[in-house]
Protein backbone atom coordinates (compact mmCIF):
# COMPACT_ATOMS: atom_id res chain seq x y z
CA UNK A 1 0.00 0.00 0.00
CA UNK A 2 1.16 3.54 -0.69
CA UNK A 3 0.08 6.82 0.86
CA UNK A 4 -0.31 9.88 -1.36
CA UNK A 5 -0.12 13.38 0.10
CA UNK A 6 -0.71 16.81 -1.44
CA UNK A 7 1.73 19.58 -0.55
CA UNK A 8 2.38 23.01 -2.00
CA UNK A 9 5.79 24.50 -2.64
CA UNK A 10 6.03 27.28 -0.06
CA UNK A 11 9.70 28.32 -0.37
CA UNK A 12 12.67 27.72 -2.65
CA UNK A 13 16.04 29.23 -1.85
CA UNK A 14 19.69 28.60 -1.11
CA UNK A 15 21.70 28.58 2.09
CA UNK A 16 24.81 30.70 2.49
CA UNK A 17 26.84 27.68 1.37
CA UNK A 18 24.78 27.39 -1.82
CA UNK A 19 22.78 24.33 -0.82
CA UNK A 20 19.25 24.31 -2.23
CA UNK A 21 16.45 24.54 0.35
CA UNK A 22 12.83 23.65 -0.47
CA UNK A 23 9.96 23.92 2.01
CA UNK A 24 6.65 22.18 1.34
CA UNK A 25 3.46 22.61 3.38
CA UNK A 26 0.42 20.35 3.49
CA UNK A 27 -2.21 21.64 1.07
CA UNK A 28 -5.21 23.14 2.89
CA UNK A 29 -6.68 25.31 0.14
CA UNK A 30 -8.64 25.06 -3.08
CA UNK A 31 -9.87 21.60 -4.05
CA UNK A 32 -8.21 20.09 -0.97
CA UNK A 33 -9.75 22.37 1.69
CA UNK A 34 -12.50 19.95 2.74
CA UNK A 35 -10.18 16.95 2.58
CA UNK A 36 -7.41 18.62 4.59
CA UNK A 37 -9.48 19.25 7.70
CA UNK A 38 -9.45 15.48 8.35
CA UNK A 39 -5.69 15.08 8.04
CA UNK A 40 -2.70 16.31 10.04
CA UNK A 41 -0.91 19.46 9.01
CA UNK A 42 2.77 19.25 8.25
CA UNK A 43 5.86 20.65 6.59
CA UNK A 44 8.67 18.98 4.68
CA UNK A 45 12.05 20.62 4.24
CA UNK A 46 14.43 19.25 1.63
CA UNK A 47 18.08 20.28 1.48
CA UNK A 48 21.23 19.36 -0.46
CA UNK A 49 19.40 19.26 -3.78
CA UNK A 50 21.14 19.38 -7.11
CA UNK A 51 20.44 22.49 -9.18
CA UNK A 52 18.04 20.70 -11.55
CA UNK A 53 15.91 19.52 -8.62
CA UNK A 54 15.94 22.98 -7.02
CA UNK A 55 14.85 24.52 -10.32
CA UNK A 56 12.02 21.96 -10.69
CA UNK A 57 10.61 23.10 -7.36
CA UNK A 58 11.23 26.77 -8.18
CA UNK A 59 9.08 26.42 -11.32
CA UNK A 60 6.28 25.12 -9.07
CA UNK A 61 6.54 27.76 -6.32
CA UNK A 62 3.06 28.28 -4.85
CA UNK A 63 1.65 25.24 -6.67
CA UNK A 64 0.51 21.85 -5.40
CA UNK A 65 2.67 18.76 -5.84
CA UNK A 66 1.87 15.14 -5.01
CA UNK A 67 4.12 13.04 -2.81
CA UNK A 68 3.87 9.26 -2.58
CA UNK A 69 5.13 7.27 0.38
CA UNK A 70 5.66 3.57 -0.18
CA UNK A 71 8.03 0.76 0.69
CA UNK A 72 11.40 0.89 -1.04
CA UNK A 73 12.24 -1.80 -3.54
CA UNK A 74 15.53 -3.70 -3.62
CA UNK A 75 16.55 -1.48 -6.55
CA UNK A 76 15.87 1.66 -4.47
CA UNK A 77 18.14 0.34 -1.71
CA UNK A 78 21.01 -0.64 -4.02
CA UNK A 79 24.08 1.55 -3.63
CA UNK A 80 24.84 3.26 -6.93
Percent of residues in beta strands = 35-45%
Shape: flat
Terminal-residue CA separation: 26 Å
CATH architecture: Beta Barrel
Gyration radius over CA: 14 Å
Number of domains: 1
The poorly predicted ranges are none
From N to C, what is the helix and strand string? EEHEHEH
Determine the mean pLDDT. Answer: 86
Q: Structural class given helices, strands, pairing? A: alpha+beta
What is the class in the CATH system? Mainly Beta
- For the report, how would you describe the main beta sheet? 4 strands, antiparallel
Strand element count? 4
The CATH topology is given as OB fold (Dihydrolipoamide Acetyltransferase, E2P)
Question: How would you describe this protein?
Answer:
This protein is α+β, with helices and mostly antiparallel strands. Strand 1 and strand 2 form a beta hairpin. It has a single domain (3-71), classed as OB fold (Dihydrolipoamide Acetyltransferase, E2P). The longest helix is centred in the last third of the chain and has 8 residues, at 51-58. It contains three helices and four strands; from the N terminus they run E-E-H-E-H-E-H. Helices cover 20% and strands 40% of the residues. The protein has helices at 33-36, 51-58, 74-77; strands at 3-14, 20-26, 43-49, 64-69.
